[in-house]
Amino acid sequence: MIGILGLQGDYAAHGKMLDALAVESRVVKKPEQLSTIDGLIFPGGESTTLIKLMDSWEFWAPLRDFAATGNPIFGTCAGMILLAQSVSNPPQKSLGLIDIDVERNSYGRQVDSFEGTGVWAADGQPRSLPMIFIRAPRIARLGDGVAALATCGDDVVVARQGQVLVASFHPELTSDLSLHRYFVDMVGR
Ligand code: GLN
């Protein structure tokens, strides 16, 4: 069972991707629900709002415990920001579950949102992947233990360290199921 953190943002779209893969999912709104799932998708949204909601629902320690027991987590966009080791523009707190530094809203006002084509290189032959970026963060530093799974231009846009997977764009808004399929494999059906 895969959980989708339903505090804020476009969590419903992730549910549709999992439906398309015939994988059961449930929206997680309270920390105690983490014990009912085997992997968690941390959707995009607005990271400052997510921080406030995580504070009021006391999600920080339970999420760290969930990851510490080896459960896979997949963060997209603001979800990636929350999972990162450190955050800039401006600095803000994060869970520190993957050794990357991210810069928020890094693609500038002119290109607030854009669709691009990147290269997905995680399963065998590298191939092109549609990517939708919305006020996206950029991975500014990739730690030694972190694998780059996809790039767009000069940027690494999908990274993995152990059981933590992150993407700076919104795969759930495209029709390509590659990332969700990859995450489902990490969780194990
Ligand atoms: N700009 C948002 C932030 O910094 C992230 C945007 C998104 O998740 N699409 O929190």
Notes on the structure:
- The protein is an alpha/beta fold.
- It is about 25% helix and about 35% strand.
- The protein has helices at about 10-20, 45-55, 60-70, 80-85, 180-185; strands spanning about 1-5, 25-30, 40, 75, 85-90, 100-105, 115-120, 125-135, 140, 145-150, 155-160, 165.
- The strands form 2 sheets. A 9-stranded mixed β-sheet has the order 2-1-3-4-12-11-10-7-8. It has a 3-stranded mixed β-sheet with strand order 5-6-9.
- Strand 10 and strand 11 (about 155-160) form a beta hairpin.
- The radius of gyration is 15 Å and the shape is globular.
List the helices and strands and how they pair.
Elements: E1 2-5, H1 11-20, E2 25-28, E3 39-42, H2 47-56, H3 60-68, E4 73-76, H4 78-83, E5 84-88, E6 98-103, E7 113-120, E8 127-134, E9 138-142, E10 147-152, E11 155-161, E12 164-167, H5 178-187
The structure holds glutamine (GLN).
Glutamine binds next to helix 4.
